Amino acid sequence: MEFERRAENRATSTRKRTGMKSRDIYKAYPREKAASLIRKLRDRGLWYYDPDFDKDEEDLMGLTYQPT
Fold first, then answer.
1. What is the pTM of this model?
2. How far apart are CA 41 and CA 58, in angstroms?
3. Mapped to the 3 state alphabet, what secondary structure does the chain carry?
4. 9-50: pLDDT as tens digits
5. What does the CA dihedral 20, 22, 28, 34 come to, rounded to 10 degrees?
6. Antiparallel, parallel or unpaired: β 47-49 and 17-21
């Protein structure tokens, strides 16, 4: 009798992305780091406008991990 064993490694993320307003990103991080993060989120398409404040740059929502 012959058996075949297959091991599967799968990484799962424990942190989730949530929407964070750009003004809150500036409060949570130093100014240069916050500006860099917002620029990267926009380049990667990980952002959206807040539905209550359409087209307001200050209320732009970035999908980011919550700072610890």
1. 0.63
2. 14
3. CCCCCCCCCCCCCCCCEEEEEHHHHHHHCCHHHHHHHHHHHHHHCCEEECCCCCCCHHHEEEEEECCC
4. 666 656 677 788 888 889 989 999 999 998 998 898 888 887
5. 120
6. unpaired
